[in-house]
Design brief:
Helix content of chain A: 25-40%
Strand content of chain A: 15-25%
Largest sheet of chain A: 8 strands, mixed
Oligomer: heterodimer
Number of helices of chain A: 10
Order of helices and strands of chain B: HEEEHEHEHHHHHH
Number of helices of chain B: 9
Strand content of chain B: 5-15%
Distance between the termini of chain B: 45 Å
Structural class of chain A: alpha+beta
Largest sheet of chain B: 5 strands, mixed
Strand order of the largest sheet of chain A: 3-2-6-7-8-9-1-10
Shape of chain B: globular
Order of helices and strands of chain A: EHEEEEEHHEEEHEHHHEEHHH
Radius of gyration of chain B: 20 Å
Distance between the termini of chain A: 65 Å
Number of domains of chain B: 2
Chain lengths: 347, 289
């Protein structure tokens, strides 16, 4: 049974102040133009929590869309000198991400500590404290419950905050880090109230996710891939705004005698993603790229990390310019028999 | 859905069914309803599926963007449902030899404008009934009292800003760019097999989504569409970063009109395009219109 605490009132500002007091830089969903993304926040009322979810995913806090890995210069004689990589030293806290975004971090943690421990990601992540906020509203594209999560799921969070009708908030203590933080701020995190329960969004289970992998296992070659890819425009909006997609590219940018090596988000929908120097492309068609997108999320990632690379946040569907729906594609797959029909061999 | 929409929708379905059953086309590219009742592009292969086709005020997508793609070729000949703005894009694709007329059957739809309220581009539309189509769907779009003034008001405001103020405003927009290239992929005229943004030797545009790289990309995208952009607005609609690309495109449209005798891209498939026409007969030093 998880320990439950109660914050009396103005939980946004109270939490922000407590985090700032411990030297955290706090990132929260903030307005940027007409979009909402995770930005440093000091004023509780700036947090945008009346939108179902932020437009940009939480991942950019830990895996920025672009970051410098190292810098180099060439001396007068042409000899190179390298500036060591700058690893972030700020302690990051997140206040106001949704449970799906917090759960996505667990998958990213596995990737960046698998065959190689990524110093840049881990430095940001190791010291981080995640205070997620449970969902009281959802939309037709939310499908966390189909992925084994929920609007009040606690996976990946250190503390799960659920605002209450009385203006306070119910706080579920999830991790040891969260427990230590709550204990250090006993004035903020008081004993649990017996008042009215938090509102939890009703997100219906939209498909049987257990049906997906068996079909994928048996259908590397299938007409479905072309059928779904025809409508696709071939941009990277879905993966760049996906909280679990983590592919990156590394580039050197040189300006005269100096330059830097950067890591940028990349995306398997692009033809360039797999194109070889020779010109050969092992994923030459939109159909083969769509197959990879689905296979990676629901088959390869599962085999490697025992979890899916999807948390059901629905962003891919909200941003798709061609109106493609991952829910509908998964439903199509789930409705198909997993076993490949035995084909008659004709002489 | 208005009566006009219902009438046009029946017309589109009937034409699509006829084209498929007569074997005139292999595929019909039109609009259908998605699971959430949103309007989405759809590819129809069989006459009995043509009842999925719809026409309403949310047929935003410019379907011409699919036509120049390599993987579409095996689905040709293809009938494609076009609004006036989409027809203009088809004109540009024909003029730039990206498609051949015989491969496409144009199903022209009278369009009263998209969106509720109407999109800005629709208020000033000059091609509400696409011409030179193979199948003209009958019907009269509800009249728009097209205002003759005000089309470029927001651009004029931008032009009046001090450079520093303009920079501050656009720095904010461009910083949000994630380089997903949705703008490029949705654009019917961004069809290069190898985009300049992908070239590395030399690298013209830094691929990093930092301010410098993002400015380079967004400015070069605009340069390459000067005198070619038909103003369909798809780039802005699909941008997940909410960058007001329509403002840039309006600036392009305004400038090309001012400098090239009221030229508007895609009004026909023969008038030489500024900047992309090379003709030694042209009376200037460079032979470039």
């Amino acid at each position: 049974m998880q320990e439950v605490k109660y914050i009396r009132d103005d939980w946004r500002q109270t939490c922000l102040d407590a985090l700032a007091g411990e030297g955290y830089v706090v990132l929260g969903p903030m307005r940027d133009g007409e979009k909402v993304r995770f930005r440093p926040c000091t004023t509780g009322s700036d947090l945008v929590l009346d939108q179902v979810n932020s437009d940009y995913p939480l991942k950019e806090a830990f895996l920025p869309k672009t970051e410098r890995l190292l810098a180099y210069t060439f001396g007068p004689g042409g000899e190179p000198a390298m500036t060591p990589p700058e690893v972030a030293t700020q302690k990051l806290a997140v206040l106001g991400c949704r449970p799906c975004d917090a759960a996505a971090l667990v998958g990213l943690d596995r990737v960046f500590n698998w065959d190689y421990e990524d110093a840049f990601y881990n430095q940001r992540r190791r010291e981080s404290l995640i205070l997620s906020v449970g969902c009281s509203t959802s939309d037709d594209r939310c499908f966390c419950t189909s992925l084994g999560l929920a609007p009040d799921a606690s996976e990946g969070s250190d503390l799960l905050i659920q605002p209450l009708p009385d203006g306070g908030a119910r706080v579920t203590v999830v991790s040891d880090k969260g427990r230590a933080f709550a204990a250090a701020h006993a004035d903020v995190f008081g004993p649990s109230s017996t008042g009215s329960p938090p509102t939890v969004a009703d997100v219906p289970v939209r498909l049987d996710i257990e049906m997906i992998k068996p079909w994928l296992d048996a259908h590397f070659a299938d007409d479905l891939w072309e059928d779904i890819s025809l409508q696709c425009l071939g941009c990277g909006a879905c993966s760049y705004q996906c909280p679990t997609c983590h592919c990156f590219d590394m580039v050197d940018e040189t300006h005269w005698q100096q330059g830097e090596r950067r890591r940028n988000h990349d995306c398997c929908s692009f033809s360039l993603f797999t194109r070889h120097t020779s010109g050969h492309n092992p994923r030459p068609t939109p159909a083969s790229r769509w197959r990879n997108r689905l296979m990676h999320k629901f088959r390869y990632f599962v085999e490697r990390f025992d979890r899916r690379a999807c948390v059901g946040c629905g962003r891919c569907m909200r941003v798709c310019g061609a109106g493609l729906s991952l829910i509908e594609i998964l439903k199509t797959v789930a409705a198909r028999p997993a076993e490949k029909p035995v084909q008659e061999v004709t002489a | 859905m208005s009566d006009t929409h219902t009438e046009i929708q029946s017309g589109v379905r009937a034409v699509a069914a006829r084209l498929l059953s007569e074997g005139r086309v292999k595929t019909v590219l039109g609009y259908a309803l998605g699971a959430l009742n949103e309007t989405v592009p759809c590819f129809i292969k069989r006459a009995e599926d043509t009842k999925r086709l719809v026409w309403n005020a949310r047929c935003f997508h410019n379907l011409a963007t699919y036509l120049p793609r390599e993987h579409m070729k095996k689905h040709f000949p293809m009938a494609v449902v076009v609004k006036g703005c989409d027809r203009r894009a088809v004109n540009m694709l024909l003029k730039e030899s990206m498609i051949t007329r015989e491969n496409v059957v144009l199903v022209g739809v009278p369009c009263g404008g998209m969106g509720e309220p109407l999109l800005h581009k629709c208020l000033y539309c000059e091609v509400r009934k696409p011409e030179d189509v193979d199948e003209a769907i009958p019907g009269e779009p509800a009249p728009i009292e097209t205002p003759r003034e005000g089309r470029f008001d927001s651009v004029t405001k931008l032009e009046q800003l001090e450079p520093d103020a303009l920079w501050e405003q656009w720095k904010g927009h461009v910083e949000r760019c994630i380089r997903c290239y949705a703008c490029r992929q949705a654009c019917p005229l961004c069809y290069c097999k190898r985009c300049i943004a992908e070239k590395t030797q030399p690298q013209w545009i830094e691929s990093s989504p930092h301010l410098r790289g993002n400015f380079a990309w967004n400015v070069v995208r605009a340069f390459h569409l000067f005198g070619r952009c038909v103003g369909c607005g798809e780039c802005e609609r699909v941008c997940p970063a909410g960058i007001p690309l329509g403002e840039i495109n309006s600036k392009l449209a305004k400038t090309v009109r001012e400098r090239f005798v009221n030229y508007q891209a895609g009004m026909d498939a023969v008038t030489p395009s500024p900047f992309t026409t090379y003709d030694l007969g042209i009376d200037n030093d460079e032979g470039i219109l």
